[in-house]
Design the sequence.
């Protein structure tokens, strides 16, 4: 539940998507692989081509060809993606193919689609996919997008809560996988540069930090570097942090590796009573779909919520025995019928 009323809550959906809307495409893809087929049905692929070119005649042909050259190898090889594209009108959309391209080139840009923001077929960035666009339903209701909005809102609330605990004293936030800082841009968050410093890091070279906010980052108390997490964890400026955040990254690591390469260094960065936020994605139909048909980078999905919480608790107890003491709170995403992630808050004791 939100503690700060001034934050916006853009998480709501227009409908709840059924699990079979995800398992359908996973099953199509798995059957294709089991049958040894290297290509999707040619009739389906040709339908996508025909619709794409006929629905966008106002766009220069060379532009459409460039997009299709990028997308075609993915669609023609993946029967699940081809069927999804037909079912959701992706070829008719001004935004679906550019979004799909960003999945492969810039995950931070792809996640902006959670809020209806992305590139159109002409390469222009827009903040509002119109309701008339065929993929509007996908944008508003897809559980992976819904969860991203909830996670960013959770983090914005956490940043404010940690600062409130300092009772007006200066607070330091370290965002290890900042992306486009959706938590600070989409939820009504207000920086307090005289009371708060934010150190942000990401390896996505497509991010232009100075274009994220209307104000110069320095005036907001934000320092943003296109550097990897290892750089941040060894950066003296990150010492004595009140809050360290790492959203959407932990599940790319085996838990033991994540413990030693991330949690242990974070413990050393934190002040006493400092907070570490991270999340673990669960083995659910939504994420299976994303990996199977969108080629989203492979996640280490380790079962349901209880299994993940149990695994993290075992890590916490093992660290406690080594003198690194955390208390922990666990929260599931609340907007999806089947939870897709556990949000973990470690508090350094």
Sequence:
């Amino acid at each position: 539940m939100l503690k700060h009323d001034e934050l916006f809550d853009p998480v709501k959906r227009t409908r709840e998507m059924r699990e079979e809307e995800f398992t359908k495409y996973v099953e199509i893809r798995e059957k294709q692989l089991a049958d040894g087929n290297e290509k999707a049905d040619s009739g389906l692929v040709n339908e996508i081509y025909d619709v794409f070119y006929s629905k966008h005649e106002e766009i220069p042909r060379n532009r459409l060809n460039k997009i299709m050259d990028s997308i075609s190898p993915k669609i023609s090889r993946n029967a699940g993606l081809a069927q999804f594209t037909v079912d959701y009108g992706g070829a008719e959309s001004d935004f679906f193919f550019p979004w799909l391209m960003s999945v492969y080139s810039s995950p931070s840009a792809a996640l902006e689609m959670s809020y209806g923001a992305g590139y159109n077929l002409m390469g222009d960035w827009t903040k509002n996919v119109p309701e008339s666009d065929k993929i509007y339903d996908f944008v508003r209701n897809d559980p992976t997008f819904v969860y991203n909005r909830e996670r960013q809102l959770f983090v914005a609330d956490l940043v404010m809560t940690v600062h409130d605990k300092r009772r007006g004293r200066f607070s330091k936030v370290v965002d290890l996988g900042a992306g486009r800082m959706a938590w600070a841009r989409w939820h009504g968050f207000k920086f307090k540069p005289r009371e708060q410093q934010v150190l942000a890091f990401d390896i996505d070279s497509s991010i232009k930090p100075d274009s994220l906010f209307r104000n110069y980052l320095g005036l907001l108390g934000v320092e943003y570097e296109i550097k990897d997490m290892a750089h941040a964890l060894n950066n003296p400026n990150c010492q004595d942090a009140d809050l360290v955040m790492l959203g959407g990254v932990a599940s790319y690591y085996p838990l033991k590796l994540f413990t030693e390469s991330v949690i242990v260094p974070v413990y050393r960065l934190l002040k006493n009573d400092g907070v570490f936020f991270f999340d673990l994605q669960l083995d659910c139909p939504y994420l299976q779909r994303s990996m199977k048909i969108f080629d989203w980078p492979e996640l280490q999905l380790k079962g349901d919520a209880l299994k993940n919480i149990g695994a993290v608790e075992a890590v916490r107890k093992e660290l406690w025995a080594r003198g690194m003491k955390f208390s922990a709170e666990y929260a599931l995403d609340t907007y999806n019928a089947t939870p897709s992630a556990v949000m973990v808050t470690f508090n350094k004791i």
Remarks:
- The CA atoms of residues 255 and 312 lie 8 Å apart.
- Strands lie at 118-119, 125-126, 171-175, 196-201, 222-225, 241-246, 270-281, 326-332, 341-348.
- The radius of gyration is 21 Å.
- The first strand starts at residue 118 and ends at 119.
